[in-house]
Each structure stands twice: as C-alpha cells, then as structure tokens.
Amino acid sequence: MMETSHYVPRGFPPISLEVTVSARLTAMDVEQQEFTRKVRGYDPDEVKLYLKSVAEEIERLNLENATVREEMGQLRERLEDYRQRERMLQDTLLTAQRMAEEHRENSRVESELLVKEARIKAERLLEQAQDQLAALESEIAQARLERDVFENRLRSAVQEHLSLLDLRKTERAEVDNLRFLRRRTGSEVG
Fold this sequence. Notes:
The protein is mostly helical. It is 80% helix and 3% strand. It has helices at 27-32, 44-189, and strands spanning 2-4, 18-20.
C-alpha cells in the first residue's frame, strides 16, 4: 500500500514522493534526495543547504527519539521492577495477614484449650474438695457417734459407780447399824 506525501515545504515546488506506510524518512534519505532540474527552478545550493538542515533536524529528532525510547525502555524496566516489588509486597502482606490470622486462631484455640484444662482442673479440685468434705463430715459423724457411745458408756459407768457407791454407803450403814446393834445387844446382854 503506497501513500503519496502531500507536504510541501514553504518555498519549494510540490514534489510527489512515494513512501510506504512502514518506511521512515531518515536524515540520509533527505540529504541524498535528488530533484529534477527545470529551467526556472530553485537555487540548487539553497535546496541542498535546506535539505542538509532538514536532515540535521531529522538526525537530531532521531537521536532524541532514540534517547526517549531508551529512557522509556529503562522506565518500563523500572516500572516492571516496581510492579514486581509491589506484587512481592502484596504477597508478603497477604502472607503476613495469613500468618497473623493463623496466629490469632492458634492463640484462640490455645486459650480455649487452656480455659478447658483450667475448668477440668477446677472441677477435679472441686470434686476432691467435695470428697474430702464428705470424708470429713463422715469422720465427724463417726466421731460424734463414737463420742455419744463413749458418753453413754461413761454415763453408764458413772451411774454404775454411783450405784456401787450408794450400795457401799448402804452396806456401810448396814454394817454400822449391825455393829451398833451388836454393841447394843452386847451391852444389854452383859
């Protein structure tokens, strides 16, 4: 596909140049451009001088374009580097968030486990305390029973001793009465 250039520099006659869309005009192309001569044409030195200045401008623009492309390539590389860093930071952040969530979950599970263990220990201690209380109450009831039995035996023993003392007193009184009666009967007889 061919395209005809319609640009005509000021002071120059219209020239028909065939340029392909993909072809680029270089400084050398401009410098080596030949024009057909006509009787009343432009000054060839002036045209060559103008073409040389256009070629220099194209060369400057090509160099500038190359510099811009190189800078753009560097910027693209830096941009890609920044994007990779951003991805790494995002991955790191996600990993840190996951780890924090896992840590929170582990802490929660661990705290629940500790609370559960503490409850079990508390229940065991309470059961042991209740068992000890029941044992102490049983011992107290047994001791009370033994005390009551001992008191009853002691009371029986005291009553038995009192009965024996009363009996002895009565026997003494009877012995004293017998003696008194014997003395008296012995004094009456004699």
